[in-house]
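User: Could you check the structure of this?
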Amino acid sequence: MHNKTFVAVAVGLGLISLSACGSGESKSSGDSRTVTLVSHNSWAVSKKVQRDFEKQSGYKLRVLEDGDAGQAVNKAILTKDHPQGDVFFGVDNTLLSRALDNGLFQPYTAKGLDKVGAPYQLDKDKHRVTPVDYGDICVNYDKAWFSKHKLAPPRTFADLAEPAYKNLLVTENAATSSPGLGFLLGSAAEYGDQGWPDYWKKLKANGVKVVDGWEQAYSQEFSGSTGGRKAGGDRPLVVSYASSPPAEVIYAKKRPSTAPTGVATGTCFRQIEFAGLLDNARNTKGGKAFIDFLVSKEFQEDMPLNMYVYPVVRGAAVPTEFTEYGPAAEHPETMAPGKIAANRDQWVKSWTSLVLR
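Assistant: Sure, the predicted structure tokens are below.
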């Protein structure tokens, strides 16, 4: 989720490139020995684990990365009659209703689904999507900055609007970024349908900075990240993920004993990612085998250090770096997919006129 930029809501805005659309593209997935995965560009798996899938299943995996999460979903909807592949991975709970309402997936009950935790099974009656991972969108803080300024870092949504934190927070545009949208939904879950606009008025008055995407916010504006320090970022608070601190530790040239960043645990929103068998997939048998693989213990345990997300399968081991430097939030904000579906587009419109005008 981390290493590459996410953009979320582009449908209806004419932002989608259709460079690889049409029936011609889908023919390459017609080979019955190849299974084609369509994903956002944060897909990652260890070479050994991919080879194990290919050996065990007899299928060769081909991956088409299609930009950021929202763009990939939108393109999959536009090409659903002649899909680019067999399986789509990377639709999350903030955009799930859009994919389901557009009939993107055909039902399939994955082998091993019984080992996936109930809270992640948001389509359990119809099985059109299979939960694969989860992560928490949360405000991260620069420990050194707060220590130097002898200021306690914020813990909650309410704290962020306090005068002590004026001009310190950078977040992503809720209309163009998955974490930006998640943060907006988290504030709506915290303050309610009527209360969130007032909260954002306070944040705006308190100097919140909005940029287009995660990459810019985290790697350029945020003073606590490796990239941000190099770029001269001056904002010690950023909307990112609970798993960002372990990433800072793991990617450091010299591994520090503690993470340079922390998480404001009262600002988290739970994001769940799903995979589904595309409705007009050519290789449905191969697609089903691949979805089974996504919920296998082997893949689930390989995933955290490749995509910086948490496994959904009970009993899958989580790397010590995660438990030590970036545990998942204990009480994240959540929102039912139906509620997100009913409000998302209007909330994003309201948020845009309120915060960006």
